[in-house]
Amino acid sequence: MSVFFGIVAFIVAVLLAIGLQTAKKGTQWLLIFMGQRVPIRICEGLVWWPRFFSKEVYNILEEEVVVLRDDQPDGRTHETIMTRNYVEVIVRNFSVFYSVARHDAAQPKSTFWKLARFLGWEPGYDLLAFSQLADANVSGEKNEVVRHNKLVERIREIALPELRKNVRLHRYEEVLGISLEDENVPTTDREEFNDATGDITDALQLSVQKSTRSSGVNVTLVLIGDIDPPQVVKDAMLAKAVAKGERAAALVRFNAIETIMTGLLKFANVTNPTLEQVTALYSEVRGKDNAKLAAERTGDLGLFLQGLAGKYNPFASAQSAA
């Protein structure tokens, strides 16, 4: 009996020595039998895999496909899309992140696969689909290059229409987080803006994932970096902001002139000034204020300093008018 167990132990040891291997982290193996791919995958970790079986090794780490970015070729730098309420927005820095599918959607439950999983084997149909992307290689390039290029183009071709469709479902206020109406209209609530952006990226990830799953990849993340209004809208918003700032500055100057006039009339003991006196004094003070602004812009402060020295009498015209 001890001889029998010894023989069994020896056979097991030999089998382990022949087949015990480790699939490196971040990779998956695909079985090759008689020159053909077999839909069996080996996931990362310890596995029993006879060394005389050939295999293909695939990277399953996350990779990025740049769909839209400024450093891409013409036609891929940005996308102009019209929102639901007919305002165009410009989308830049749009990327899709993917990895090779680690598990198939439907896991078979047969006795064979129960034993196979004990050995570290898994069904490999998605990985098989991914590997076949390079089968129609007629360019002479390496399969890895062909596969990567085909997959990148496929993801771009899927992602762009989905991007257009999802942005068109939203109003520009939600997409941009701003209002283009009268300046007194409040901007869009930031929570509403964040929700809309999250809805777009979530919907994009699901729709792109649904269409790329047949290629054997899993979409892990969709990112939209920038959504901007077109240049004509930016110019209009800038002009509106500048006009608003100029009106605010004019109001501040007017309030300052009013305060100065009140103080000067009080200092001159003019309790009931006539319209002519007020008009003349306003003209003098406003002229002095304009001279100050002009002097500050040109760097010539001579006129302004003369006024401070008392060589210019702001009451002259007011007294003559009285």
Which SSEs are present, and which pair or pack?
Blueprint: H1 2-19, E1 20-23, E2 27-33, E3 36-42, E4 45-48, E5 54-59, E6 63-68, E7 79-82, E8 88-100, H2 111-119, E9 121-123, H3 125-131, H4 143-167, H5 172-176, H6 190-212, E10 217-228, H7 231-267, H8 275-298, H9 302-308, H10 316-321
Antiparallel strand pairs: 1-4, 2-3, 2-5, 3-9, 6-8, 7-8, 8-10
Task: Describe the protein in words.
The model is unreliable at 308-322 (pLDDT under 50). Helix 4 (143-167) packs across helix 6, helix 7 crosses helix 8 (275-298) and helix 8 (275-298) packs across helix 9 (302-308). It is rod-shaped, with a radius of gyration of 38 Å. The N and C termini lie far apart (135 Å). A four-stranded antiparallel β-sheet has the order 5-2-3-9. Strands 6, 7, 8 and 10 form a four-stranded antiparallel β-sheet that branches. It has a two-stranded antiparallel sheet with strand order 1-4. The protein is 50% helix and 20% strand. With 322 residues, it is α+β, with helices and mostly antiparallel strands. The relative contact order is 0.09. Strand 7 (79-82) and strand 8 (88-100) form a beta hairpin.
